[in-house]
Structures are given as C-alpha cells and as structure tokens.
Specification:
Blueprint: H1 17-27, E1 34-38, E2 43-46, H2 48-53, H3 75-81, E3 85-91, E4 101-110, E5 116-125, H4 128-156, H5 170-182, H6 199-209, H7 227-235, E6 236-237, E7 249-250
Antiparallel strand pairs: 1-2, 1-5, 3-4, 4-5, 6-7
Length: 251
C-alpha cells in the first residue's frame, strides 16, 4: 500500500491506515486543531495546528496518552460513554496550557457494529475571547437584521383601521360605509382630498377591510415618478413604442 505520510498506528489496530488516510487528506491542511485518540487513550493522529497549540512537537506526541499533554482531557470519558460532547467548554488544568479556556468538540468514532474505535477531537476556539468576539459580532448582526425586518414590516403593512377614523358626522359615517362596501371588491379606488385630510388613513382602512389584508400593503410615491414615464413604468411597453424602447418591458 502506498505510504500516506502518517505514523503507522500500533496503539489500536482497529484504527487502520486507511482510516488515517481519510483523516489526513481532509484534516491535515486545516488550521483548526484536531486530534484522534485510540481506545487505549493514546494519540493516534494529531495535526500540526493542535501540536503547535499545545507547544509540542507533532512527531513526539503520537503513541503517547492524551493526558500527558491535556491532564484533564475529557477524551477518556467520551471513549467510555460513547456519547459526543459538542461545543463543550474546557479549561485546561496542568500542562503547557494551564488556565487556558477553549471550546471543543469530542466525537466518538464507531464502526459498523457500533463498537467504539476511537475519539475525534477538534478545537473550535483556541481562546474563549475569540468566542466572545464572535458572539458580540453575531449579536450586532442579529440586532441589525431585526431592525431592518421591522422597517420592512412597517413599509409593507398598514397601521390604521376603520376604528382610527374618528367622527360621528354624516360625512364620516358615509365614508366608512363606502369603505366597508368597496373594500372587499377588486375595483380600483381613487382617494382624493386636501393635504392632511387623512387619505393615508383611508387607504390603510380599505386594505385592512379587504380580502388582501394579510398580504403586503405596497406604497408608491407617484409624485417622484416623472409624468412622461408614469404610463410605461406602471403598465409596461412593447419594443419600439418610443425612442430608446428596445425591448419589451412588463409593468
């Protein structure tokens, strides 16, 4: 068999060379610290990133107990329980990293008969401060997302209903009756009135009284659209309908 460049595993025969070819091809070049430990609790494979993190020589670590380098390692517990420890907080006690804090994955390696053949470990964060920084960035992004979601909801939704139209005059009552009458239909409704008379309030009320009340309320600032483009922008045009209109555009 062609050499894979990995130390031959002698601590646990069930972790064979082919297993480590897969581990090596996938994990050797990754910057995340990774280790594989046999059922005898000895290191079968460790990548360069983890060896550097532990301030040890990679070649001197293979075949030695994981507890020689991480005295309070949780690997022996995972090997016995066969239960993974995901995103687990770990504080090193003793060794070269005494007092350091990190976040780790410890995953049991099982064969086809549900027998444990080893344990795979990976450090997600080499320093707890990295996790805190990522948490702060994530919270900032979540806050920004929530803000924009609220803004979008405001733009798409209505906030007024018929209950917000106050007054007992004949004109107000008549307008409410017309809203109730026409809102369920599909006809276009023109609302006109002086500035500040409550056209937006009426538009919201019509939408909320319609069959489309659960769908977005779309606002268009018609005053911002040039008069000569109004028809083409809203209703579309065919190719060649006017100078520059090279393609067909839907409204």
């Amino acid at each position: 068999m062609k050499s894979t460049g990995f130390p031959k595993i002698t601590t646990d025969k069930r972790l064979n060379e082919e297993d480590f070819k897969i581990f090596g091809d996938v994990f050797l070049q990754l910057p995340l610290p990774m280790v594989v430990v046999g059922t005898d609790e000895k290191i079968a494979f460790i990548n360069h990133a983890y060896a550097m993190y532990l301030k040890e020589e990679q070649k001197n670590m293979v075949g030695r107990p994981i507890t020689d380098f991480v005295p309070n390692s949780r690997v022996p517990f995972v090997l016995k329980s066969k239960q993974a420890e995901i995103f687990n907080y770990h504080r090193y006690v003793g060794g070269t990293l005494d007092g350091e804090e990190t976040i780790v994955h410890l995953i049991p390696i099982m064969d086809g008969k549900n027998n444990i053949t080893g344990c795979f470990g990976m450090l997600l964060f080499q320093n707890i401060d990295d996790l805190m920084e990522l948490t702060i960035k994530n919270k900032t992004l979540r806050d920004e997302l929530e803000f924009y979601k609220k803004e979008l909801k405001y733009l798409q939704n209505t906030k007024y209903t018929l209950d917000n139209i106050l007054g007992n005059s004949i004109a107000v009552k008549g307008m409410k009756e017309e809203i109730i009458r026409f809102a369920p239909g599909n006809s276009t409704i023109l609302i006109h009135g002086e500035s500040g008379s409550g056209k937006e309030l009426v538009a919201h009320s019509i939408h909320n009284a319609s069959k489309r009340s659960m769908y977005p309320f779309l606002r268009l600032n018609c005053a911002a659209i040039p008069e000569n483009l109004f028809e083409s922008e809203f209703f579309g045009y065919e190719a060649g309908a006017f100078r520059g209109g090279k393609g067909r555009q839907k409204g």
